[in-house]
Design brief:
The chain has about 500 residues and is an all-alpha fold. Helix content is about 70%, strand content about 0%.
């Protein structure tokens, strides 16, 4: 049964959100006076209120890994979890040399509230119903399962990418076994053609596994057997993980394809119970934390943990990480203070620069004026840093003030809702995976930046662009042959 085509999706009842104001109030009362955030007593009830008045904003229980749910979860972190963590643990972060005032942090949360309300409005305004694919739509173009030759071409291009990046299998083994090799390889490839080709072509190997699994899954409809797509899916997941760990051990590079693999399997083949997903996620969490620590040590030039941290230190480090990756208000507040809270607006220029900055060669001139560059200068007080992610709502505010936040997140809600309907209309597993993959990265705009989304579209979607171009070329050749045949018959 294809759960994604359900006319009335199962949704989580809004009653659970009634606990959120109570939780926020509890943290407020037990926090030291200097860490109490009045805005937390507003953001939690507003999150709950929108769940009641806008049913389309409630999380889906059938296609529970859908991008709309991911975006709602990110906004839940920003409006409820992070303010409570700040009151419980504090806003201090090793990244920040100075903290903004609590008043500024509360102002940053108010902008997050505005983004959440706008996102819910976008979901509410989005049309419903099943999309009927037309010949001009992406779902129609990808309706055909990838052929065996396409799978082999993808794998071949991926291997070429690995050869360009590493040179030999021994170098790949060294990459995984010797921490110092990671930094050395990255420094050798930065700014070179081999590095560019390695970055663009390596995703083909992971997509070859996706294409292979998609072929097997689509063939399942003929024999009604799920063991083959399940087994191949597990093999593909392992291969994707290994292949995409070569992107500097970046967790998103392999976690996002795995989420899309699971979401597509659950929607088109057999529903994966939520409990199973929670158990797998809980088991994988220590591994992801270990990879995060390993990657942080690499970036810092260390080879391992410097001693054993206490439980309190681990809690604080986890809180800092969560606040940083979810766009904590202390980071955005420093940025807003630098802007004078809207006294300086960029009128869309940083958004253009953020979108074009990741473009190879051409985008270099935009990288000093894009949103991430301005954001990092506000945090560190100097140029040359690129590690902190500017939240999408913060960049919208920097360009168009509150109206920009409202318009941007209404459009995000409309887009994700439309993408969800496209996913349901997909006529092949590969099309469903591709739509899920693109919309999942778009959902991350709830906390991440436009530049990251642009970077992913430029570097990691090349296999999809290549496949679409191949299909279009094949269609053009067949049309040309038919036209030539018709001319010959007329003569």
């Amino acid at each position: 049964m294809n759960l994604s085509t359900s006319a009335r999706p199962k949704q989580l009842h809004a009653g659970w959100t009634l606990l959120l104001p109570l939780i926020a109030l509890t943290f407020y009362l037990y926090a030291p006076p200097e860490r109490r955030m009045v805005t937390a007593l507003i953001s939690a009830p507003i999150y709950a209120f929108m769940q009641f008045v806008a049913p389309k904003c409630r999380p889906r229980l059938d296609h529970y890994l859908c991008p709309v749910n991911i975006a709602l979860f990110l906004l839940f972190l920003k409006l409820v979890v992070v303010p409570c963590l700040i009151m419980a643990v504090g806003a201090e972060n090793r990244i920040l040399t100075t903290l903004p005032s609590f008043r500024s942090m509360e102002g940053a949360i108010q902008i997050d509230i505005l983004a959440y309300i706008a996102f819910c409005v976008g979901l509410t305004l989005a049309p419903e119903g099943i999309i009927r694919p037309s010949s001009a739509m992406l779902t129609s173009a990808l309706s055909q399962s990838p052929s065996g030759p396409i799978v082999l071409i993808f794998a071949g291009l991926g291997i070429v990418g690995f050869a360009a990046a590493f040179g030999s299998p021994a170098r790949i083994v060294q990459y995984f076994l010797e921490p110092s090799a990671v930094v050395d390889i990255q420094q050798e490839l930065d700014g070179t053609l081999f590095g560019l080709f390695g970055t663009i072509l390596r995703p083909f190997l992971a997509f070859s596994l996706v294409a292979w699994w998609s072929r097997i899954s689509d063939q399942m409809e003929e024999n009604s057997s799920i063991w083959r797509p399940t087994l191949v899916g597990v093999i593909a997941a392992v291969g994707i993980t290994i292949a995409n760990l070569t992107f500097s051990f970046n967790r998103a590079a392999f976690v996002f394809p795995l989420i899309c693999l699971a979401a597509t399997y659950s929607a088109r083949i057999r529903l994966i119970p939520i409990g199973v997903t929670i158990i797998v996620a809980a088991a994988a969490l220590p591994v992801l934390i270990a990879i995060s620590t390993y990657r942080s040590n690499l970036m810092a030039g260390a080879e391992g943990n410097q001693g054993n941290a206490s439980f309190a230190e681990n809690v604080r480090e986890t809180s800092e990480t969560l606040q940083a990756y979810s766009g904590g208000p202390q980071f955005a507040a420093l940025f807003y203070e630098r802007l004078g809270w809207g006294n300086t607006l960029y009128g869309g220029s940083t958004l253009i620069a953020s979108a074009l900055g990741p473009v190879p060669i051409f985008g270099k001139s935009f990288r000093d004026t894009n949103g991430p560059a301005l954001f990092n200068r506000a945090i560190y007080g100097a140029a040359g840093f690129e590690d902190q992610i500017i939240p999408f709502d913060a960049e919208l505010f920097a360009n168009f003030h509150a109206p920009g936040v409202l318009a941007g997140f209404v459009l995000l809600g409309l887009f994700l809702s439309y993408a969800q309907r496209l996913f349901a209309a997909a006529q092949s597993t590969f099309a469903a995976f591709s739509i899920q993959y693109a919309s999942l990265w778009a959902a991350m705009l709830g906390a991440w930046s436009l530049s990251i989304f642009s970077q992913i579209l430029i570097y990691f979607f090349v296999p999809i662009y290549f496949y679409l171009a191949t299909l279009q070329l094949r269609k053009w050749i067949l049309g040309f042959d038919r036209g030539a045949g018709a001319i010959g018959a007329a003569r």
